[in-house]
Design brief:
The complex is a heterodimer of chains A (259) and B (533). With 259 residues, chain A is α/β, with parallel strands linked by helices. Chain A has a single domain, classed as Rossmann fold. Chain A is 27% helix and 25% strand. Chain A has an eight-stranded mixed sheet with strand order 5-4-6-7-3-8-9-10, sandwiched between helices. A two-stranded antiparallel ribbon of chain A has the order 1-2. In chain A, helix 4 links the parallel strand 4 and strand 5. In chain A, helix 5 packs parallel to helix 7. About 6% of the residues of chain A have low confidence. Chain B has 533 residues and is an alpha+beta fold. Among the domains of chain B are: 167 residues, 2-Layer Sandwich (Alpha-Beta Plaits); 101 residues, Dna Ligase, domain 1 (2-Layer Sandwich); 99 residues. The longest helix of chain B is centred in the middle third of the chain and has 21 residues. About 5% of the residues of chain B have low confidence. The chains are: A alpha/beta (259), B alpha+beta (533). At the A-B interface, helix 3, helix 4, strand 5, helix 5 and strand 8 of A face helix 16, strand 13, strand 15, strand 16 and strand 19 of B. Strand 10 of chain A pairs parallel with strand 15 of chain B.
């Protein structure tokens, strides 16, 4: 039996010579370049955002997904990278983005009306190449509709971004890309933080709403899936694993910026 | 000092052939190799004004009527096109300027170049002449080129001898001797007089005694004598370089489909880009104009409605603005096709005119440490495709407007720069992002003590557990659409009845959320502006 297997292997290798150098060898894991997401806690938790890979950020409304997205866009545009936002429901607010530090001149905003336009636009932009970050915002598209996106679409997106320096980020209510995603983060929010000018907030102080300002809210991030092996393990000075394990969580704060 | 003259034989026929379908595309013999006669005039009195060599051999003569010419088998009859002649003449001038900065526009079919100082660029005069012939072929013209130290001699040699002619200095009289006197463009009476004398060649004319010739033919005789000897001296009359790049094509039959139209546009763009390349320029914008076919019903209807009103011309115009100057005809054709797919012409097309706004070619210097960025030409194509998909107003770079009106912005053209901000991005905390609802959603608000206590919208009902406001804003009172809003930031706990709460609704309906609502004092209603996420 072993002899037959060896003979068969030799024959296949002989037939494939010149076309495949080592058809039975596993491909070595590629080192993936990782860049900062703009949020140190996320970078510490997950390593950052992988280039050439699909990152899914999922969570319910008010879970901090858009805050995460704007931080990533601000980080990339500050490095003069051209970025794209494919907006599935036309919810992007340029004022909020500018306040978060996004260089709007470096951002191409594609305002779609339905999921078919989103998928087609994503294909076109991945073929165009040259972008630092492509964000696909499916946050406000009904979850049932996004679930019906065929798996081959996610596979196509992954293949389209592979071996390129582009970061593909998808915002969802729930994870849909399955094994096509290199990194999946689930976000959830903590109660909002409010600040007041009153020295001693009176009981029932929300009876004086004009004395309160929204400060922001904490976001809880959980790594559901990660294939990242960061290039520079030295970044993790206290040796907390070159790759984070699934299920790791971290918390970052968002701060409301006055207009 | 040396001059080169470029002459296009059968200029009218070649200008038509230049715009025709290429032989290698259609598998037919090139038009210039077929027997062609051009007619001109008002129907039905159209006469033959130009013929190709093949048509002349077949027996077609200038001045024949169209019906007479149609009797000859194997001869194609075409209408003369002044538009094509203008375009061919412009191409000829571009050819001259691509080699020398000093060009004389001698005639529609002839130009003269000053070759002084070109030896270091092109080498010998023979190389220059070969270069000119080759470049002319690239522009779709078969030309005669003559080089001589005498300006007039080069013109006559180019008109008289086919191919490339090099006249050494001092040999003008000998080389021009074989040419017929008609090449010198004498008057009709002079031609008849010389014919009666038996003087048919320039050699015979130059051999005549000058004094006696002047007594019989006057100053014209003296002039012709100098020209025949190649001794006439004059300066080059320089032509101003034109910045107009335009190609026209009137169509024999109206074209309604995009595919054949794209084929014709491709042809014109090839010619346009070749002319731009000859001048080392590129196109900053492409202007397309279609003359449309007027339907008889529309025309008669418009006259019946108001006999005194002029019928509106059927014109379709489009401008393709390019982010960077381009010269790739295939890329330009793709961009034009996408635009025409999105906004097709309303009627069949009877004439196409394409013009290019010339600009210097883009010079790109890459950097080792600069980030990757999209190729401008590919980016333009991608954006054109996306525009077809989502619409012109839904793609671009957002730009904040200098106003206090909430949520105001405009979409501008996306032109990324590669200059990194000098200090990089300051590290900052993640900002609380806002997602806007467009349009704002109407919401029912229950107030308690003047504050929102409960809200309901989109099928969801919630209790307000924290509120901040009201923050009053107003503005644009001088406009027709002023605003006056009282804004609130609310933290809302949503209530679900067990009957409607399912696993699926739980995912899409938040249990708690942060919203911004406002009371519109002008519309007297509450709206949700957006959500903090």
């Amino acid at each position: 039996m072993a002899q037959n297997l060896a003979a068969l292997r030799a024959k296949v290798e002989f037939d494939l010579r010149g076309r495949a150098s080592a058809p039975f060898d596993y491909r070595g894991h590629k080192l993936i370049e990782i860049v900062s997401s703009g949020i140190p806690e996320i970078d510490f938790l997950a390593g950052g955002l992988p280039r050439g890979g699909l990152t899914e950020i999922c969570g319910p409304p008010c879970s901090g997904r858009t805050s995460f997205l704007l931080s990533a866009l601000a980080s990339r545009t500050a490095h003069a990278e051209a970025c794209v936002l494919i907006d599935g429901s036309d919810n992007f607010d340029p004022h909020s983005a500018a306040a978060a530090g996004v260089e709007l001149k470096q951002l191409l905003w594609v305002r779609c009306r339905n999921i078919e336009q989103v998928l087609r636009a994503t294909d076109l932009l991945l073929q165009g190449r040259g972008f630092g970050l492509i964000a696909v915002d499916l946050s406000d598209i009904p979850a049932e509709t996004v679930r019906h996106v065929p798996l081959n679409a996610w596979f196509r997106f992954r293949r389209g971004v592979e071996d390129t320096p582009t970061i593909l980020v998808v915002l969802n209510q729930e994870p849909n890309a399955k094994t096509c995603a290199s990194l999946v983060l689930r976000l959830g929010s903590e109660p909002a933080r409010w600040s007041t000018t009153m020295e001693t907030p009176a009981a029932g102080s929300f009876a004086y709403p004009f004395a309160w300002l929204l400060d922001g809210f904490d976001v809880r991030a959980e790594v559901l899936r990660s294939r990242i092996q960061p290039v520079a393990a030295a970044r993790f000075h206290n040796g907390i694993g070159a790759a984070c394990a699934d299920g790791d969580t971290g918390i970052f704060e968002t701060k409301a910026i006055g207009e | 000092m040396a001059f080169a003259s470029i002459h296009v034989p059968d200029f009218s026929v070649q200008s038509i052939a230049r715009a025709e379908v290429r032989a290698d595309v259609c598998g037919e013999p090139a038009l210039r190799n077929r027997a062609i006669a051009l007619v001109d005039g008002n129907p039905p009195i159209e006469k033959v004004v130009a013929t190709s060599e093949g048509a002349a051999r077949a027996g077609i003569q200038l001045g024949m009527t169209k019906s007479q010419a149609e009797q000859f088998r194997g001869v194609e009859i075409r209408s003369r096109s002044r538009a094509q002649e203008r375009a061919a003449h412009a191409a000829l001038l571009d050819l001259g300027w691509s080699v020398s900065p000093r060009v004389e526009d001698t005639a529609p079919d002839t130009i003269v170049l000053d070759l002084a100082g070109l030896a270091s660029l092109f080498g010998s005069t023979e190389n220059v002449a070969n270069q000119l012939a080759r470049r002319a072929a690239g522009l779709g013209l078969l030309v005669n080129v003559a080089v001589s130290s005498n300006l007039e001699a080069t013109i006559h040699a180019a008109r008289g001898f086919p191919g490339i002619t090099l006249i050494p200095t001092g040999k003008e009289t000998v080389r021009l001797g074989r040419l017929p006197v008609g090449v010198l463009s004498p008057s009709v009476e002079t031609i008849e007089t010389l014919e009666r004398w038996g003087v048919r060649t320039c050699g015979a004319l130059s051999a005549l005694p000058l004094l006696q010739l002047s007594e019989r033919l006057g100053q014209e005789g003296v002039r012709l004598h100098e020209l025949a000897r190649g001794a006439s001296l004059r300066s080059l009359v320089l032509a101003e370089p034109s910045i107009c790049f335009e190609e026209e094509m009137p169509l024999d039959y109206a074209v309604a489909e995009l595919e054949p139209l794209a084929f014709l546009l491709g042809r014109l763009l090839d010619q346009l880009c070749a002319r731009l390349a000859a001048r080392s320029l590129a196109a900053g914008a492409i202007r397309v104009r279609f003359d449309l076919e007027r339907s008889p019903e529309k025309h008669s209807r418009s006259l019946d409605d108001n006999p005194h009103s002029k019928p509106t011309p059927g014109i379709y115009e489009k401008v393709l603005s390019l982010p960077v100057p381009m010269r790739d005809s295939k890329m330009l054709l793709r961009l034009l096709r996408l635009q025409l797919q999105a906004n097709p012409p309303p009627a069949p097309i009877v004439k196409i005119t394409i013009a290019a706004d010339s600009a210097r070619q883009r010079v790109a210097q890459g950097g080792l440490f600069l980030p990757d960025s999209p190729d401008p030409e590919k980016l333009e194509l991608t954006i054109a495709r996306l525009t077809n998909l989502v619409g012109d107003s839904n793609i671009g770079s957002p730009e904040l407007v200098d106003t206090h009106r909430p949520g105001e912005f405009r979409m501008s053209r996306f032109i990324p720069s590669r200059d990194e901000s000098p200090l990089g991005r300051k590290s900052r905390e993640a900002a609380t992002a806002f997602r806007a609802f467009r349009p704002s959603l109407p919401v029912k608000v229950e107030l308690r003590d003047g504050h929102p206590a409960r809200i309901s919208f989109r099928g969801m009902r919630g209790q307000v557990i924290a509120a901040s406001g009201p923050w009053r804003t107003s503005g644009d009172w001088w406009r027709e659409d002023p605003w006056q809003h009282d804004e609130w930031d609310l933290e809302v706990q949503f209530l679900f009845s067990p009957a409607i709460r399912t696993e699926r609704t739980a995912a899409s309906c938040p249990q708690r959320g942060l919203y911004r609502i406002y009371y519109d004092a002008i519309r007297r209603n509450w709206f949700v502006r957006g959500i903090y996420d």
